[in-house]
Amino acid sequence: MRLAFGLLVVAAPLMAQTPLAARIAQAPDGVVRMQFDARPGVCGDGRDRISFRHSTFGDHFESYGRWSDDSCLAGPLRVTLSVAGNRVTRVQTQVGGRWNTTGDRVTDLGIVSPREASAYFFSLVARSDALRDRNYTLLPAVLADDVVVISPLLGIARDDSRTMDTRRQAVHFLGMFGDASVIPALVSFANEDDRRDAAGLAGSAIAALSQLESGAGIPALIELARKGPQGTRKNAVFWLGQCGDPRALRTLRTIISDGDENIEVRKNAIFSLGQSEETPTRDLALLYGDLGDRALKEQAIFALSQRNDNAATDALIRIARDDRDKSMRGKAIFWLGQKHDPRATKLISDLILK
Questions:
Q1: Strand ranges (DSSP E) for the chain?
Q2: 235-260 confidence digits (pLDDT tens)
Q3: Got the DSSP string for 292-329?
Q4: Which of 63, 89, 225, 267 is the most exposed place for a label (fewest CB within 10 A)?
Q5: pTM of the model
């Protein structure tokens, strides 16, 4: 019935005493409710799901991809704070719908300023860094309407004293709300993957570059895919395939054909190219014929196996029937066996009879 963002034990009197913070600090035990405008494009089901751009947030989960269901409706942000002993112990956020029923005493603050609400939740995050699920407290802070979030998010991401989970979430939101000004910082984070404590931050930064509006981060992502540390290059080629940008797909083809490139990076590039909806199946079939390395050819067969169109099945049948390499024929036959296609079934039956 609601989106829960974990246990946040924060001494409210220690927060900056803005009018909103002061009202929350003075609230009796129970729940404190507030409502404020959300950014354009924010929608939810009034219960446990919220979506914005390419991300969907639920009860302790987050997924990548647009939520196009008609049940995702625009509406204000409704935030419920659980308060005990002048401490905020829980934050729950929903978009639209009605307030959840509760047996606790309710302090309703009504409609508040989105800017003041955002500032309050950034302050709350700053004082809850050591506690479980604190990263989700950023959600009402960044989804509030007409607020500037780049500077506070950069501050969180750069703060080595914070937990990596909190920093990663800040970097993720930089990809959602940032512009060209955040690219140098994201590139810096992405190149830190040789540091044991920064590996997770590097992956988040590379993903964030791929999500910047209007493809602003694609040139930097291409540069990382070609010249970054090996771990960075592997991550970068994956996200190049997710963004569907023609420049990105050209780069993947260049990496695949580069005999001097690391074999694992090339395999990742094949996988990523195959995952892109903008890559025609015919191109994957042609790519297979151009590859000489067995590991790369096997990856191309796997990429074809993930396609559900007739062209992919046709390509696998040709490999299974005609390829000179017995190992590759075997790989193609294996994946054909996973498909429910009469042509694949007939081919396998014919091979058994032979």
A1: 3-11, 30-36, 43-44, 50-52, 55-58, 61-64, 73-74, 77-84, 87-95, 106-111
A2: 999 999 988 899 999 999 999 999 99
A3: -SHHHHHHHHHHHHT--SHHHHHHHHHHHHH-S-HHHH
A4: 63
A5: 0.81
